[in-house]
Structure formats: C-alpha cells, structure tokens
Amino acid sequence: MCPLPLAAAAVAAPRAPLRLLGRGLAAAMSTARPLISVDYEVFGEVQGVCFRMYTEGEAKKIGVVGWVKNTSKGTVTGQVQGPEDKVNSMLKCSGLI
User: Fold this and answer.
1) With 96 labelled, which of 33, 38, 89, 90 sits at a CA distance of 20 to 30 A?
2) Comparing C-alpha atoms, which of 31, 28, 37, 96 is closest to residue 63?
3) Is 41-94 in CATH node 3.30.200.20?
4) Catalytic site residue 70?
C-alpha cells in the first residue's frame, strides 16, 4: 500500500544514524545480492503527517534498513539501504521515484 505520493530529490544527506529503519544492516547483508544505498530529501507536506512512522513501517515490511529525520527546513531527509530491488520498491512505495 503506497498512499503518499510525494515529490522528492536525491541529495547528499548526513550519515549520522538517527531513527533506524528495519532490523539493521546485518539483516540486509544476509543476502547474496549486491546492496545499494540511496540518500533522499522529501519536500511538501511531510511533517506532522506521520511520514517517518509510515516510512519505518514500510521499510520493515519490504526488508530494507536506513534512517529518516525531520529537518529545520520543513523537509524530511533519510537514507535507505538494501538489495536494489527492495530499495527501488521502498522508493516507489514512498513516492520517492
């Protein structure tokens, strides 16, 4: 279920671990497939609408890891990591691509 169509742009976000998604990098690394990492920033009405909680829940369902945080600019930045097909699925579901 992907109810939040949002405009987004990939950016170089800080890599400090904040709100973790999924069960950690070890869970993503348990696969033989190559892993990718994508940094993102989401613009629009994303603060105060449970976007971070939604993102965390979807990440757990899909099986990717990463972090997400609100910014002082009113955007949300984050990073998602895992096998390419799962990362792409997460980005599509969250409206990032």
Assistant:
1) 33
2) 28
3) no
4) yes
